[in-house]
Amino acid sequence: MLKSFKDLVLKKTIKNFRFFSHSKYVLPNLSFDYQALEPYLSGDLIELHYNQHHRAYVTNLNKTVEKYYEENESSLDSFINRLNLLTSIKFFAGGHINHSLYWENLLPNKQGGGQIINGPLVEAIKKEWKSVDEFIRIFNMQLAGIQGSGWAWLVKSPFSQRLSIQTTMNQDVVTQGKVILGIDAWEHSYYIQYLNNKTKYFENIWNVVNWKVMNQRFEQ
Q1: Binding site: which residues?
Q2: 118-142 residue pLDDT tens
Q3: Could you state, in order of their start, the residue ranges of all structural domains in the chain?
Q4: Which CATH number fits domain 109-219: 3.40.50.720, 3.55.40.20, 3.30.360.10, 1.10.10.410?
Q5: Is residue 13 within 8 Å of 79, Cβ to Cβ?
Q6: Strand ranges (DSSP E) for 30-162?
């Protein structure tokens, strides 16, 4: 009787083991042409980053979600398989989410990219780091300090409304706070243009940072 009860609980748990919609994820459209961020980010770099790397995250996310939903058996093995697939889903979904935020954070220099907009966001930055220049310096230090692959983020606390700089490894997403800015420190985000001089990439990307979007996110 006890064994049957355990089996019933396990089957019910497996049946309800659903965390996300069974729908296709799509690659977002860029708001600029591949060459529009030059000379700071080359057209070849953007095309590779967007059309191959980000697209691969979306493709693999959809494939892995499909495999997840193919595990329909109410068995312990099926349950374990789903747990293993969730690790891959976390990685591919993180890559999709992080890159989607990244593209929104970029704007051609000729359209206002890199132009700091005075307002509540700048005041909040000055409150934490005294000046925008000092904030950028520390942000770039955090980027340069990432071992391997990862991201640096400017994040607004949902509680204190204060800003902080966070780093995440691989394709982990920010789970505490609202993302205001995200910069990719993966090698694929700079290597074909900057080779191993990633600090130059960190310096130059600020010329195409979209402060309009940053302000919108901060004020939402």
Answers
A1: 49, 99, 184, 188
A2: 999 999 999 999 999 999 999 999 9
A3: 43-105, 109-219
A4: 3.55.40.20
A5: yes
A6: 150-156
Class of domain 43-105: mainly alpha
- The whole-number pLDDT of residue 217 equals 97
Predicted pLDDT at 16: 44
- Statement: residue 95 has pLDDT above 70: yes
More confident residue, 132 or 10: 132
pTM comes to 0.87
Annotated binding site for Mn(2+): 49, 99, 184, 188
Q: At what angle do helices 120-129 and 132-144 cross, to 10 degrees?
A: 70
8 Å CB contact between 190 and 198: yes
